Amino acid sequence: MLVSEPKPTEEVLGYLRAGERAFLLACGGCAEVCGTGGEEALKKWRPVLEEAGHPLTGATVLPFLCNKALVGLRLARFREQVERADVVLVASCGVGVQATAQVLDKPVYPTANTITMGGLQGVWASEERCGRCGDCLLYYTGGICPHTVCPKGLLHGPCGGSQNGECELEPGRPCGWQRIYDRLKALGRLDLLARYRPPQDSQKGLDVPLARRKAPFWALEYLEED
Amino acid sequence: MRLRERLAKGEFVVTCEAAPPKGTDIEKALEDVKKLASHVHAFNVTDLQSSVLRMSSWALCALIAREGYEPILQMTCRDRNRLALQADLLGAWALGIENVLALTGDYPTLGDHPGARPVFDLDSVQLIATIQALNQGRDLAGNELQGSTDFFVGAVVNPGVEPLGPHVLKMRLKAERGAQFFQTQAVYDSEAFRKFIREVEDLEVPILAGVIPLKSAKMARFMNEHIAGIRVPEEVIQEMERAKTKEERKKRSVEICARIIREVKPYCQGIHLMPMGWEGLVPEILELSGLT
Ligand code: SF4
Ligand code: SF4
């Protein structure tokens, strides 16, 4: 179970350029329980986007966006709607956003910040990982998490040890920042890497106060017993 | 004259690496500095290079400054969070250290304490921004300082790395956040270096080209294989191979360094020597390259 909370509306609207059309994808897994995904997310974001001048080409809830293979399959039904969109907004934890980015050749942006995964390891079988930083950066990084693909968790490009696309840590391990660079280049958004981002607040993520961690877990347990 | 004044005047500068001791015996490190002081404008003191434990960089910097020489404090993001980095920077300034070089730092598993917890609370770009905040009299949280710093801030770039694109982007971001000079990884291919310089010359930030004397053909091959961004051309490796004795190898190594320095000199504002134990060769290298 990954616990997430919605990003500030202005932040998400700030990701979109004037008039860009969006496809809205919400997760029906943990994110639904936390209130960041599910039908509730569609209800929340649809009017916000439309009022801000971003027509929706479509919107849907899919169960467990962290399962990349299923996301690919299930999104196929919406191919035409997704194609017409300039960007895809994903209401889920960081893993769901990354899994979606992996199956689409489009900019994929988060609408939530992932805070913690508490006691449970996730159910996803693929490589996408979320470091639960509490201030999701996937908009800036082409849908690839800098906290988990780069062992140093760097936020402004590769360290000097990155060579031929490999990480300095061990041969054969891809340099996460090379992957981010390549992805943004393919999307025509290298300008995002030229932006400075101040240090993150570590209290938002990994070290969240217990009180904030707990609530959604109780909700999940309750739901599972149901 | 201080490093920042020399660079501001357009003077061609020479910096050299000095490693703190593994332990508390500082004599050798200070001896090396003294011997080279008439040839070198400033000494980069490494910060647990390759994640191998040594004495703090700021401590040797302070000792060097006390002797009347100019240190450059290397600071990595590997071992300290934003509080400890700022605390050390304030202390360094109070101890008379005026230059800082901001680096990411190697991952701990590369060194002699592989189980150490990596920190990387800030990255190198954020560290540069932090130093500039202290220079403005504020800490990273925006609180006012009683007495600010006025560091001359350097950064590193690895011009031989492939593909270069992301590294150039990051270099630009470093300059934008306040890097006032750059030191590079060792250059052996002056043609590639020239190409790199052409790509970033609009930045107008002084660049000091890195130079590492080769000890042997084997060392060259090792670096080619294991160190990102180092590419010793095959002809150069063969030149080293033809030298049979240690004396011959030293002579060859000096010739190669001097040649590279002469070739890159028109394209940069200085050189940064990393002698790796061959400090004794530095005067000869500088002489043969026409720098002294
Ligand atoms: S940036 Fe990475 S760690 Fe932070 S919330 Fe997004 S996916 Fe998770
Ligand atoms: S080589 Fe790339 S992935 Fe590895 S630590 Fe450096 S920037 Fe991160």
- State the secondary-structure class of chain B: alpha/beta
Main sheet summary of chain B: 8 strands, parallel, barrel
CATH topology of chain B: TIM Barrel
Spatial order of strands in the largest sheet of chain A: 3-2-4-5
Q: Which strand-content bin applies to the residues of chain A? A: 5-15%
Mean pLDDT score of chain A, rounded?
86
Number of strands of chain B: 8
What strand order characterises the main sheet of chain B? Answer: 1-2-3-4-5-6-7-8
Low-confidence parts of chain A: 208-226
Walkthrough of the structure:
The complex is a heterodimer of chains A (226) and B (292). Chain A is 36% helix and 13% strand. Chain A has helices at residues 9-15, 30-34, 38-51, 68-75, 79-84, 94-103, 146-149, 176-186, 210-225, and strands at 3-6, 22-27, 56-62, 87-91, 108-110, 112-116. In chain A, helix 6 links the parallel strand 4 (87-91) and strand 5. Chain A is globular. Chain B is of the alpha/beta class and 292 residues long. Chain B has helices at residues 3-8, 27-36, 57-66, 82-94, 124-135, 165-176, 190-200, 217-226, 234-242, 246-264, 282-288; strands at 13-18, 42-45, 71-76, 99-103, 152-157, 181-186, 207-211, 270-273. Chain B has an eight-stranded parallel barrel, surrounded by five helices. In chain B, helix 10 (246-264) packs across helix 11 (282-288). The interface between A and B is medium-sized, with 28 and 37 residues. The complex binds iron/sulfur cluster (2 copies). One iron/sulfur cluster binds next to strand 6 of chain A.
